[in-house]
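Sat 14:20. Reprocessing the chain from the morning session after the first attempt stalled halfway. Input below, unchanged.
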Amino acid sequence: MSKEEFESVFKEVWILFDNIYGNIAEFPEAFGMPLYKIKVLIVLKLMADKAYNTNRIGDFIACHYKLFQDDMNVVNYGHGVDIVADKMHTQQEKEFIYALDALLCEMGYYAGSRESNEGPGYAYYSKESDVKKRDPIII
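Finished this time. Tokens:
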């Protein structure tokens, strides 16, 4: 499936989700839904709305915890070294990633985001022009 096909299907699913669960969230008693489940549906709907508004479909699919930062039309995360740091499990690991990034940049390396079959990544290059080309990393 191409990226365009995926985005098209996501938009269709989002419209269905919005219509179906929007009605359930507004009229829970009519659908026999307990109140606690409605809160989950409302959160999912908000996540879907923000992912749609900001074109961050992958964040919705992964239930990225930073999706609720900022307002419903702004995304200020997942750029730069955050791409790696956000995948770490402990604060100590995150601090290590930020310290390593600072050290490599201080040493003169250039960093840039990369896309691969494993999702977004981050790489370091010896020349800034290589970041823009996104060539394979040669060490």
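The mean pLDDT is 80.
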